[in-house]
């Protein structure tokens, strides 16, 4: 799932390549992706794209005061397209959800971008609204993970008896962090994903804060370096534990382990994070019985 660094990099890419251009047409290929009906998608045609920004993991395209807001969900992505086909796409075929055509710059081919979603579980959501706060998921967002200082993070965690992993990924507490970067942040902070959020010592809180900043800004810098040609998918480099079950931890060499849940999993290093003790994993113990 695209998280804060990926979505911020997409917004930056669109600020450089699409802002200032006029939307000529929007094609909807996946009917279930659109969550609003007023204003209609057709209201965007003929208006200039005036801004691109991010709210948590939501991408917000300001089209002269009408906002096209996108949540890429698990497997959604934005593909920049040179020489877009003019024929309308066939609805319900393939990964295409929405196509935005932009007025070509002088002497250039018509370009624009596709919103796509792989897989059968469709979660990509598109909203056309007068204000981003009309999108329920945006209205509920906590403060942005990159706009907090250590003190504010401490205040946010005070009184929360929930586990760190769930707390960091709860968008109503803190906006922008998902499954991948929460694994990375907790590993860098040398904290157990199951530790209670309100049980951190001052030293642990500072470690968590610094790990959060370094992990997110490092990932953002790597993402920003990507050019149009490489804006192909959600390629993440430099992951230490996330999606690395069974591989050695780059810090200590211990084997990265996993805890599975109904529809997700987390990865961690026992030596770095849990005093060498593996966390209980119901699925694993069932398999081993
Ligand atoms: Zn380790």
Any overview of this molecule?
This is Fpg/Nei family DNA glycosylase. It comes from Modestobacter muralis. Belongs to the FPG family. Keywords: DNA damage, DNA repair, DNA-binding, Glycosidase, Hydrolase, Lyase, Metal-binding, Multifunctional enzyme, Zinc, Zinc-finger. Its cofactor is Zn(2+). With 289 residues, the protein is an alpha+beta fold. It folds into two domains: 131 residues, MutM-like, N-terminal (N-terminal domain of MutM-like DNA repair proteins), CATH 3.20.190.10; 119 residues, Helicase, Ruva Protein, domain 3, CATH 1.10.8. Helix content is 26%, strand content 20%. The chain is built from eight helices and ten strands. It has a four-stranded antiparallel β-sheet with strand order 1-6-7-5, with no helix packed on it. α5 crosses α6. The longest helix has 23 residues. It starts with a helix and ends with a helix. The model has no long low-confidence stretch (mean pLDDT 92). The structure holds zinc ion. The site of zinc ion has 7 residues, from α7.
Provide a quick synopsis of the model.
The protein has helices at 4-17, 136-139, 150-157, 164-169, 179-188, 202-224, 270-273, 282-288; strands at 23-28, 51-55, 58-63, 66-71, 76-82, 96-102, 111-117, 125-129, 257-260, 265-268. The chain has 289 residues and is of the alpha+beta class. Zinc ion binds at residues 249, 251-252, 254, 269, 271-272.
């Amino acid at each position: 799932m695209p998280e804060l660094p990926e979505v911020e990099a997409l917004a930056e890419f669109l600020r450089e390549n699409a802002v200032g251009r006029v939307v000529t047409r929007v094609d909807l290929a996946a009917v279930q992706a659109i969550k609003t009906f007023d204003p209609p998608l057709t209201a965007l045609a003929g208006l200039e794209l005036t801004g691109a920004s991010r709210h948590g993991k939501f991408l917000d395209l300001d089209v002269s005061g009408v906002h096209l807001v996108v949540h890429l969900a698990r497997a959604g992505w934005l593909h920049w397209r040179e020489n877009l086909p003019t024929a309308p796409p066939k609805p319900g075929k393939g990964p295409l959800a929405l196509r935005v055509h932009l007025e070509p710059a002088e002497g250039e081919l018509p370009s624009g971008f596709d919103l796509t979603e792989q897989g059968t579980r469709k979660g990509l959501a598109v909203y056309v609204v007068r204000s981003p706060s009309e999108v329920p998921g945006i209205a509920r967002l906590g403060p942005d993970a990159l706009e907090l200082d250590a003190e504010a993070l401490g205040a946010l965690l005070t009184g929360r008896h929930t586990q760190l992993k769930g707390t960091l990924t709860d968008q109503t507490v803190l906006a922008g962090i998902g499954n991948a970067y929460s694994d990375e942040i907790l590993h860098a902070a040398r904290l157990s994903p199951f530790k209670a959020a309100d049980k951190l010592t001052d030293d642990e809180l500072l470690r968590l804060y610094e790990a959060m900043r370094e992990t997110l800004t490092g990932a953002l810098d790597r993402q920003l370096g990507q050019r149009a040609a490489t804006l192909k998918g959600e390629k993440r480099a430099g992951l230490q534990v996330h999606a690395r079950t069974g591989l050695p931890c780059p810090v200590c060499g211990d084997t990265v382990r996993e805890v599975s849940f109904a529809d997700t999993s987390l990865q961690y290093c026992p030596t770095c994070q849990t005093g060498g003790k593996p966390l209980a994993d119901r699925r694993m113990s069932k398999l081993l019985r």
